[in-house]
Amino acid sequence: MKYDHLLDNKKRIHFIGIGGSGMCPLAEILMSEGFEIQGSDMNEGETLDKIKGYGIPVFMGHRAENIEGAELIVYSAAVKPENPERKAAEEKGIPCIERSVMLGIVSRRYNRSIAIAGTHGKTSTTGMLTQVLIGAGFDPSAIIGGKLPFINGNSYVGHSDILVCEACEYVDTFLELTPFISVILNVDADHLDYFKNLDNIKKSFNTFAKQTTGALVLNGDDANTLDAVKDVNLVKITYGLSDKNDYYAANISADKGVHESFDLMRRGEKLCTINLMVPGKHNIYNALAAAATAHYLGANAKEIAENLGKFGGVHRRFEILGNPGGITVADDFAHHPTELKATLNAAMKMGFNKVWAVFQPHTFSRTAMLLDDFAEALQIPHEAIISEILPVRETNTYNIYSKDLGAKVPGSKCIDTFEDITEYVTTHAKEGDLILTMGGGNVYMCANMILAKLKEMYSEEK
User: Which residues are bridge partners to 108 per DSSP?
Assistant: First the structure.
């Protein structure tokens, strides 16, 4: 690719926003290859602590002098052109590339790069596959969109020719990749502020698939996925719940929806029984994708079953935070109606007396364009609380508000602030209930506030 030469004869690379979840893994991998890494960031945090622990110099705050001595600049998508470090680099003629471009460059340094794409489930599936491959002795490198407890982080530097990474479709960033294996989990209407319609999303996935050099692993039950790749001339490996697929789940059972269990089948032959620790039909699909990919790479059935059975989830994917007073508090990244439905349907089967969903809508465009779908999803739990919409990168040109969503969800409550939400749910939730915060933004802060309040309440009763 046209940027791959940028690493030639370079020694020192400066990362603007090095503490970002997508930046830290790239810095780790490049450091392991012998590059001198430095960076800057605005905020302290766990990821930044990890970076500093490697002895990587980190400047707090963005200033022109921070880039002194750098030969290449990598910046995160959140860093604007007017950033002083970007401006200084351009004035000095130092090449500057966005994180997704560097991910593409790094991925091509591995003979067997595996890109996990799809509208939903990328982080969980990437975590599952990483855990299976490490457990099976493949020693891959990995770049994951969330913290995987198994590796105590969102990255892993191995010593093989395998790299597992997420491939995000937003603004076509995944088109920077040319994977050996592309896994497409699903294709759904999302990021419509950019794509405008589902047809355009399919076209991007088609281009992504055609950039793959080895094989496609596909959700054979997802019509949009199959439509997107119908003209792609590559090895295609399908998975799903139907026996029309190469790999499929049979004899599915569940313990109150908590522990999904199924037989992994391949073209009519039983390979193994997989007992998952993570709930929901969506995680059966994720596990099938990971299993099919691992098996194609050479992992055996025993290794697949054993390591998928140990997978306990990733950060912010139905993450159980605590159970003070018998009230379970959990947090989930779901921010699209399909994700909400999958997670809430799983939660409703888990035997709680009442499921409280605290949802933070993520972007005005997504809320406006998928309003009826969000309303349908939020009618699944016993109680739905809706916070104000998180703008992220947008202004409210859509004239959309939380109350517009709440009006379509009978019995729901629109409560703007995390403080007021915390007060309401901790006052009304009872022993045996689940409080589940959901959203792609900072609603996890609300989960932490709820947990702290409940701990305080129930410690006072003792």
Answer: none
135 phi/psi in degrees, rounded to 5: -60, -30
Of 47, 50, 85, 123, which residue is the catalytic one?
Answer: 123
CATH of domain 110-308: 3.40.1190.10
> Would residue 203 show up in a list of annotated catalytic residues for this protein?
no
Half-sphere exposure of residue 242, counting CA atoms within 13 Å on the CB side? 8
Of the residues 28, 85, 166, 383, only one is catalytic, namely 166
Phi, psi of 32 (to 5 degrees): -65, -25
The CATH architecture of the domain made up of 9-99 is 3-Layer(aba) Sandwich (3.40)
Q: Which helix (H) or strand (E) holds 74?
A: strand 72-75
**Can you read off the two tokens belonging to residue 203?**
């076209």
Work out whether the CA dihedral 43, 46, 47, 50 comes out positive or negative: positive
CA-closest candidate to residue 345, choices 327, 357, 330, 333: 357
SS3 content of the chain, % helix, strand, coil (to 5): 40, 25, 40
User: Which residues is 39 bridged to in the sheet?
Assistant: 15, 58
Cβ neighbours for 141, distance < 8 A, ≥ 6 positions apart: 29, 110, 155, 156, 157, 158, 160, 162, 163, 164
Tokens of 154: 């969102």
Residues near 133 by beta carbon (within 8 Å), at least 6 away in sequence: 139, 140, 162, 164, 294, 297, 299
pLDDT (tens digit, 9 = 90+) per residue, 214-240? 999 999 999 999 999 999 999 999 999
The phi, psi pair for 11, rounded to 5°, reads: -120, -50
Q: How far is Cα 311 from Cα 150, in angstroms, rounded to an integer?
A: 8
Q: What average pLDDT does the structure give for the chain? A: 92
Q: Is 363 a catalytic residue?
A: no
122, 202, 341, 453: the catalytic one is: 122
Token pair belonging to 202: 């399919």
Which residues face 83 on adjacent strands? none
Query: Which of 193, 212, 213, 242 is CA-nearest to residue 395?
Result: 193
Whether 293 is a known active-site residue: answer no
CATH class of 319-460: alpha beta
Boundaries of every domain in the chain: 9-99, 110-308, 319-460
* 45 confidence band (pLDDT: 50, 70, 90): confident
Q: What is the pLDDT of residues 231-280, one digit of tens each?
A: 999 999 999 999 999 999 999 986 655 578 999 999 999 999 999 988 88
Residue type, 377: A
411 Rama class: left (phi>0) / alpha (psi -120 to 50) / beta: left
